[in-house]
Amino acid sequence: MALDDDIRILSGVSLFSGLSAEQLRLLAFGAEAVRFQAGREIYRETAPADCAYIVISGKVVLYRDHNGESVAVSRLGPGAILGELALIADSRRLTYAAAETDVEMIRLNRSLFRRILEEYPEAAADLHRRMLEDLQEFLKKIERLGVKFAD
User: Fold this and answer.
1) How many Å apart are CA 66 and CA 117, to the nearest integer?
2) How far apart are CA 50 and CA 84, in angstroms?
3) 148: helix, coil or strand?
4) What PROSITE patterns does UniProt report for this protein, alphabetically (predicted)?
5) What is the pLDDT along the chain (151 residues), one digit of tens a residue?
6) E strands, the chain, where?
7) DSSP label at 100?
8) pLDDT at position 97, please?
9) Where in the sequence is the domain holding 12, given as residue range(s)?
10) For strand 69-76 and strand 81-82, is the pairing parallel, antiparallel, or unpaired?
């Protein structure tokens, strides 16, 4: 895939919405195109996470272990990002991911993403602000749900 195609795909991912064209170009230049055949494992739940994936084409299924059984919790298609937390922090995979169909993805590693944030502190500040807003919205949703489950 051409660099311009990767830039276009990355620009559609909300996590990267605050990045400039130059920053997206750097990210795309350091990205790796990967393919997985239908049924193939992408990563295992609890495995160390050092990268994120953006789905270009195909479908990915995310599973969680429940009493020793893999339960599908989500299906993701083009434009979705998997494992974004791995771009900014040492973490472990929260799900097991497998290709439901043949899948083409962009793999972004943490060291590249961190380098961009270090070189462009305004992008890091914008990302921090947006992540904080997302977390606050998530906490509000939990509070609203909590009322339904209160004794």
Assistant:
1) 36
2) 10
3) helix
4) CNMP_BINDING_3 (PS50042)
5) 688 888 999 999 988 888 899 999 999 999 999 999 999 999 999 999 999 999 999 999 999 998 888 899 999 999 999 998 899 889 999 999 999 999 999 999 999 999 988 999 988 888 888 888 887 887 888 788 777 766 5
6) 32-36, 41-43, 48-49, 51-57, 60-66, 69-76, 81-82, 91-92, 96-99, 103-109
7) S
8) 97
9) 3-149
10) unpaired
Is the entire prediction scored with pTM above 0.90?
A: no
What whole-number distance in Å separates Cα of residue 79 and Cα of residue 11?
10
Phi and psi for 27 in degrees, rounded to 5? -65, -45
Number of domains in the chain: 1
Nearest residue to 14 (alpha-carbon basis) of 115, 137, 145: 137
